[in-house]
Write a structure and sequence with these properties.
Tetracycline Repressor, domain 2; disordered N terminus; homodimer; mainly alpha; DNA-binding
Chain lengths: 201, 201
DNA sequence: TTACAAACCAAGCGCTTGCTTGGTAGCTTT
DNA sequence: AAAGCTACCAAGCAAGCGCTTGGTTTGTAA
């Protein structure tokens, strides 16, 4: 009767490590990193709390790995979808759709952890994650600049700031968007386009 | 040499209760509700940890009061600024500016707590806070609907969803916007207008 | 000057936390 | 069959947690 946890990524649940990370993503989002205990996590994967530390040295290490996995997975997926897009409008749409998918799809719980549990990382881990995210962010900025050059984004718009607004807008959807209703992620992505592109789009 | 805490609201720091709430807003944002201990809080206001409970029954009660105070303060301020706005464009701008002020101004830390420490409230408190927020949210929806009727927002835009996008976009600014630079809050509000209003604005 | 309440301290209780330890079951390799 | 490795359990430790208790100081008012 409990909430079913989404898998972090396909096939990962075959190994103990993968099962722990998937359960951790679920628990860390639901209760927050601090409130979720190692004992909770151990129960979720069916082992004793001490056994967790056979697979990860510390609790923070589990958090760090959840974040690394979800960045890698979603960066790769977005790269793929960008290649399939034909024109610039299509590329912007691909970015929007891809990020909404990340936030609300199977990696949604892990994405929420990535965004909102930042404070629980130690500084060195924060630096590491930041560098991984920069690759992802650069893809956004490149497309936005192309769109601006093509006249799809107004001259006086700062694409740096625009990307930050969009980060917030799309990330927040995790708190209200419920998949399975009348509005699917593609439709939501179309709606979000009007935040970025000028005039009728 | 430590970070100076913004006051939650003017004059509140005169009473012990106010000093505790202001310090709590600062600590809860910096470390998260769970990680911030009552001992941390006591040290910040210069008393023993046990003395905190002379003023508040539980730690959660402190969190709840931080949230209530910040909602009341910002709802009232936004009401005021809405009255001063002349036309519809001005009203939308007033909303944007007001919320950016809430998030990045003197109530910024408390706003971050309101947004991101939701999980740490017990269900009954969540319900209470939700009802307070609904008044605030209704003001947004009313103005958006007026703007749509006036042709400033496109016909096919769902104002409900638009508000949610904007909530995320503006709320996220807490993580990147630093006051005191070249870009002040008014200028940022102007920039954010293009997310909402169609064409040149 | 006395009475009283609000504000606070010093000490610590009961519990939970992340993590450690020493050992065992079972599979794989030689 | 011996050795070695991965995956785990059972038990518990030291530290830190929210919160309580009993008593003391301090400001205000009669």
């Amino acid at each position: 009767m409990g909430t079913k946890a989404n898998s972090l990524l396909a096939g990962m649940e075959d190994t103990p490590r993968g099962r722990i990370l998937a359960a951790a993503a679920h628990l860390f989002q639901k209760k927050g990193f601090e409130r979720a205990t190692v004992r909770d996590l151990a129960q979720a994967v069916g082992m004793q709390s001490g056994s967790i530390f056979h697979h990860f040295k510390t609790k923070e290490e589990i958090l760090r790995n959840v974040m690394i996995e979800v960045i890698r997975f979603n960066t790769e997926r977005m790269e793929q979808e960008l290649k399939n897009a034909k024109d610039i409008r299509g590329k912007v749409l691909a970015l929007m759709k891809s990020e909404l998918q990340s936030v609300n799809g199977e990696t949604g719980e892990a994405m929420a952890v990535l965004i909102y549990e930042w404070r629980s990382l130690k500084p060195e881990s924060q630096q590491e994650i930041l560098e991984l995210r920069e690759v992802y962010e650069q893809m956004w900025l490149n497309v936005f600049d192309d769109a601006k050059e093509a006249g799809l984004i107004e001259e006086d718009v700062d694409t740096f700031i625009l990307r930050r607004f969009i980060t917030g807008a799309l990330g927040w959807s995790n708190f209200w968007y419920k998949p399975g209703g009348a509005l699917d992620i593609s439709a939501l992505a179309e709606k979000s386009l009007s935040l970025v592109l000028k005039g009728k789009c």
